[in-house]
Amino acid sequence: NLRNNYEVAIDSFGGLWQSDNDDDGYFGVRLNYILEYGNYGYLDELTGGGWLEPRISQHPEIPKRHWHQNDPGVVPNFLHTGAGSPTGITVYEGRLLPKIFQDQVLNCDAGPGVVRACIAEPDAAGFKGYAINLMKEVNDKSFRPIDVAVAPDGSVFVSDWYDPVVGWNRQSEVSIGRIYRIAPVRHRYHIKHEEFKTATGAVKALESPNSDVRFRARKAILGFKSSVAVEALQLLYKNPNPRLRARALWLLAELEGHDQFWTRNALSDDDPNIRLAALRAARSQSYNLQPYLDELVIDSSSRVRSECAIALREVRSTDSPRYWARLANQLVPGDRWYLEALGIGATGRWDACLEAWWNAGGDWQSIPGSQSNTRVIGAMPGP
Questions:
Q1: What pLDDT score was predicted for residue 192?
Q2: What pLDDT, on the 0 to 100 scale, is given for residue 367?
Q3: What backbone torsions phi and psi does residue 253 show, to the nearest 5 degrees?
Q4: What's the mean pLDDT when you consider all of the chain?
Q5: Three-class DSSP labels, the chain
């Protein structure tokens, strides 16, 4: 239920980020943190109607009404950025730029001519944040950044379509375009030679902030004898940077086979991002998720628990409603991200999940603000 998303960026934990354009002119451009299988609210889920059609409980602010942000079942937007034409997006996991930009989403917007860093702050099971400009042209209105990428040395490259028109189906300046490189003053561009012929060298290359280098490293690592690759990856898994550890964990999960030593061990990691990545890695390898859910449905992190709820959508087991009920009983009122993850996990078996929740002590009246809602539900016709 997106409108006109340009592309999706993935971080080292397996998190997905994307931008989406509104119906031009309504200041509703947005950035999303993706919950798998989520509904992102462009059209009414039940009627297929657009946001201009009046409806009960519509949001008073047009940018949020545009994405049906008040409708049940719609995942919250991470960030609204106003009017624009969002284009290329990436996650900057380098260390060359100032700390404020590190591990943040970089997003081009060709409309206002800006490259933003979208600063994400944990917000219950999701994120909230704000944008700061990494690059903006204030005098030349033809500046149209359309893509951003991270170089192996940690500098950032931005491609500029350079045109006075943002029409996408026409151009005025067909012979002009520019590429910018963003780096600290006097930092010369230098690409070191990566070694992919040894497992140690390939694992070292996995630390690169450049996705192409990491892709080559991954291919090389999977080509080595499993025991040799695992031995080299163990060293990276001890790195204090959780994003580097997560990169190692994804490959360890792929190489370890059915003993699941590394992913199971990661469930007790101090960093919730690693526990989250362990569950995602287990899903990617089609492991039996029951041992993971047994531990993580009572995890201290609401974002880890919300990932458990999402994982339940694919677990067709008689135990699934029981897991769902345990997760539902830990819902903190106001945590919309967690609530929508629960909805994703109950897809196709709402009756069983709600019955398990009720039997586990669930009570509508115990949810603050629910009393009026139960009266409305009770007055609705139908089964």
A1: 86
A2: 61
A3: -65, -35
A4: 91
A5: CCCCEEEEEECCCCCEEEEECCCCCCCCEEEEECCCCCECCCCCCCCCCCCCCCCCCCCCCHHHHCCCCCCCCECCCCEEEECCCEEEEEEECCCCCCHHHCCEEEEEECCCCEEEEEEEEEECCEEEEEEEEEEECCCCCCCCEEEEEECCCCCEEEEECCCCCCCCCCCCCCCCCEEEEECCCCCCCCCCCCCCCCHHHHHHHCCCCCHHHHHHHHHHHHHCCHHHHHHHHHHHHCCCCHHHHHHHHHHHHHHCHHHCHHHHHHCCCCCHHHHHHHHHHHHHCCCCCHHHHHHHCCCCCHHHHHHHHHHHCCCCCCCHHHHHHHHHCCCCCCCHHHHHHHHHHCCCCHHHHHHHHHHCCCCHHHCCCCHHHHHHHHHCCCC
**Cβ of 328: how many Cβ atoms within 10 Å?**
21
To which residue do tokens 């009046």 refer? Answer: 54
How much is the pTM? 0.92
Asked whether 81 and 74 are in contact (CB, 8 A), the reply is no
Q: Radius of gyration over alpha carbons of the chain, in Å?
A: 23
CA 218 to chain CA centroid, nearest Å? 21
Distance from C-alpha of 164 to C-alpha of 141, rounded to nearest angstrom: 6
Residue 232: pLDDT band (50, 70, 90) is: very high
Length of the chain as a residue count = 383
- Under 8 Å CB-to-CB from 215, ≥6 apart: which residues? none
Kindly tell me the burial class for residue 57, based on how many C-beta atoms sit within 10 Å of its own C-beta (0-12, 13-18, 19 or more): exposed
Write the CB contacts of 362 (distance below 8 Å, at least 6 apart in sequence). 325, 328, 329, 354
pLDDT class for 246, splitting at 50, 70, 90? very high
Identify the sign of the CA torsion 108, 74, 280, 235: positive
Look at residue 381 in the predicted model and tell me its pLDDT. Answer: 32
Among residues 293, 266, 286, the alpha carbon closest in space to that of 278 is found at 266
Residue with tokens 């990169």: 247
The residue to which tokens 């798998």 are assigned: 36
